[in-house]
Amino acid sequence: MKNKITKSLATAALLNFISVPAFSAQDHIENTENLVQQAQYKNVATIKRNFAKQVALNYPVLDADLKQSLNKYNLVLNADQLSTVARHTKRNISQANSALQQLKGLPNNTGSLLQVRLASESMLTDWQQGESPLFAFAPAGDDSQWSEIEAFDQFGDIHYLSVDQMPTQPVFIVELDQQKVQDAGIAVMKGILSANKFSKNMVSPQNQLSNEQPLQTSVLKKIHLEDDKEPWISGKAEVYAIVTGINPSRDEPILDIVDLPYLDHDQTTYSPNQVLIHWQRYRWQAVDLLLMEQDDNTNYKTLAMKLLEISEQVMASIPDLQAQGYTIIPKLTNELLKAMPDEWFTNNDDYVDVFYTLFENKDYQEYKGASSNATITLSPLEINPRQ
After folding, report:
1. What is the pTM of this model?
2. Residue 8: which H helix or E strand, with range?
3. Residue span of the signal peptide, if any (predicted)?
4. How many domains are contained in the chain?
C-alpha cells in the first residue's frame, strides 16, 4: 500500500460536500453552488467518493456510531443512521440520495441508498481494538480494467489498494444498498415492460388459474456460479434473470425479469426451489434465460426502454416469424447480448451467463450455460388450481 498525497486537511475539507464561500453578488453565489452540486452528484462513483472522504475526515466523531452498531452479525450501517454527523452533512446526504435515485431511474420514495460496510468480518477485531480504518469505494468504469482501489484515511490522505486482494488493514466501503436498489429497479423495469404494447392481450398465469387450468412452470432447483463477476470491494452479487420468449397470441416478444435475491456468492450451490418460468406466457414452449449481475451505474428506466427498443428492432427485421419458429428467440437474446458492451451494460450490469432454448416439460440436471459460468437444475412443475 502506498500513500501518494501529502496530508492536507484544508484541501480535503474544500473538496467534499462543503458550503460554497460567500461572495458579494448573490447570483454569483447561486451559480457557483449549482456548479459545485453538479460536480458532486454527476455520477454514482463521484457521489460515493465524496461521501467516503467525508466519512473518513469525520471518523473521530463517527467512530462511536460505527462501533455501537457493527458486529460480526451486522457489518453494515446505513448513511441515515450516522446520528453524530453535522447538520450540513445530513443535508448533503439527503441531496446525494436524491441524485442517486435520479441516476438509477428509481422513484423518489425508494429510501436511503448510501451505506457503509466493513469489507470483511476478519477485520472486525483489529478495528474494534483501535486500528484506524480506511474508507474506500468501488471506482467507475469496467471493473475488469480497474488497476487500483482508492481509499481515504481520517486525515484525507489517499491510499491505493489492490483490486484483486482484500487488504488486511480494516477498510470500510461506501456503497449503495444493492438489495434495495435492485428491488426498486426490478419493480421499475417490470412496470415499464408490462405497460408497453407487447404486454397487452397476453395470457397471464393469473388468468389461467381463474379459468381453473393447471399452471405449467419450470422450477429452479439448484444454481451454482463459477464467477459472480464481483471484485472484493463490490461485496455480494445481486443477480437477476431475463426470460426472453414470444407472445403466444401475437407476433411480439415477451421479456420477464426475475429476481434471484439469494444468489450472493460464486462457488456456492443454492437450492431456491423458485418458480422461474411461467410457460403460458410463451409460444412454442421455448425460452432463453439470461443471467445478469447489477452494478452501480444502471439506470433502470433506461435499461427497460433499451430492452424494448432492441426487441422491437429484432422483431421488425424478421419477415415471417411463423416460418422460423422458436429460432427467433436466440436471435432476440443475441441482439440483447450484442448491445451490452458498447451501449448500456459496460460495468452497469455484468453478463453472467445465458441458457439458449429451454423447453417446457424438460428436466435439466446440472445444466451448464453457454459460457459455462452458471450451472442450473431446472425441473417442470404443474400447479393445479385450488379445488
Report:
1. 0.76
2. none
3. 1-24
4. 2
Between the CA of residue 61 and those of 55, 86, 285, 302, 372, what are the distances in Å? 9, 10, 60, 40, 48
Least confident interval from 81-90, 228-237, 286-295: 81-90
Is residue 345 within 8 A of residue 293, CB to CB? The reply is no
Which of 29-33, 38-42, 210-214, 333-337 has maximum average pLDDT? 333-337
- Please say which residue of 176, 195, 226 terminates a domain: 176
Give me the sign of the Cα torsion angle 142, 348, 316, 250: positive
Whether 199 and 299 map to the same domain: the answer is yes
Q: How far does CA 8 lie from the centroid of its chain? A: 35
Which of 12-26, 187-201, 266-280: highest mean pLDDT? 266-280
Segment (H or E) for 220:
strand 215-225
Determine the Cα–Cα distance for residues 214 and 386; give it in Å rounded to an integer.
Answer: 10
Cβ pair 357, 290 in contact under 8 A? no
Q: Please report the pLDDT score of residue 34 as a whole number.
A: 47
* Residue 164 β-bridge partners: none
- Single out the residue in 152, 176, 200 at which a domain terminates: 176
Q: Are residues 234 and 333 in the same domain?
A: yes
172, amino acid identity: F
Enclosing H/E stretch for 382: strand 374-383
C-alpha distances in Å from residue 358, one per residue of 128, 333, 350, 352, 355: 51, 13, 22, 17, 7
Q: Which domain holds residue 192?
A: 178-383
Cell of 35: 456548479
